[in-house]
Amino acid sequence: MPDTHNSFAHWQQLALNMPEQMAAQFIEKCESLPPETRRALIAATPDQDSLTQNIKAACAQEDAPLRGVPYLLQDLFDVEELPTRCGAPFQDPFEAPLEDGSLLHHKLKRLGASLLGKTVPSEFGVDPRGRNLSFGDCPHADGLRYVCGGGAGACAHAVSAGWAPIAFGLDSAAGIRIPAAFHGLFGFRMANNDYAREGVFPIIPSLESVGWMTAQLEDLQTSIEALFPSLNASSTEAPHGYLLNDPSIPLDAELKANMMDLTRYLDVDDNPEPNRALCRRFKESGEAYTTIESRELYAIHQYWIEEYRTRYPEHLLRRIEAGQICTAEKAELATAIQQKIRETMSDFFNRYDYLILPISPQATPDRANWSGQISNELNRLNAPASLTFLPALILPFPCDEGRHSALQLLLNPRKLHLCSKILQQVRGFYG
Predict the structure, then answer these.
(1) pLDDT mean across residues, the chain
(2) Fewer CB near the terminus (10 Å): N or C of the chain?
(3) CB 15 within 8 A of CB 51
(4) Which homologous superfamily does the CATH classification assign to the domain defined by 1-271+353-431?
């Protein structure tokens, strides 16, 4: 297989010139994994002949913007002739191969991308740590010491390890953002859209969004432009943003220093006035998100719980059943908070093009040091984007001891054409 973090261009040349070798090497790599690691990472792959034909078909699209680029897909998305198991603790409803695939899968095929396989999510894509007691916890690409993170942790592992240059999954509770940050990957979260609804097993339907991660800055830009061809990259407008400074969320000192190094490459305002309004409103975002999540999880899983209760992990069962006891008054309050946050962000975007805030309060956590406090802080930092349906750029930065973290730039949905300029501004940080 290519060396870690090879670019789209490298993979495209391999696909064009040696499709049989690309397919054979990927299958061999999967088969060479220890059984417990493979079970935790790889949900399904086409057979070698089918994979070769898929690569050749992708390369035949001469004008496609992602021609020949291989990708991985979180196993919440339907793909024809492959099962969708959702990382579930029971398989009966999910085993059958589907005749048709998800809207996202078909979109990527039209763009010339080629599916290598599907990765295992945390059970139903819910857990922020990336735990899966049914298939095994997804290991971090840098070893068992670190938390992999998020529902799409296996996607992050695979991209970080150089198995593919790009991987797609769902981001409701930061299922893309958290593992990308913990692996030092670039990424993008779409605004809530149909790609997250058609041919996809839902996590939190009302807050669902598609996201993806890459190891290369240039590949992130290429993928954004491929999926949003209408963006006007030639605009002369200069992007102007704002850095949130919330003193109630304790940030690791070294992480904060490295975060500030990255933000120096951006045009960022430090006016304290918006900060007060945002901090006041975001303070309630985590609890509001949790309420909405629990009610929707329960609505999806209530009938399966009756039949498969003993197979659900206890931590997941608690989150689901919280929705059963959630009162109508509490749900109405969460909806009201969500609406106020959306109004606050709408006002904010009258002045700014993006809002910067960290994805995590600390760099890649040790598995042994994970706590409920970390989960709560992750929820609070990442809930605003989900509650407001906002697209977001993920910009990583290194920390000590080989750890990673990342910024998220919540984007004005009317200013997506500025993505290319933002990425150009930070290019110097990444050398």
Answers:
(1) 92
(2) C
(3) no
(4) Amidase signature (AS) domain (3.90.1300.10)
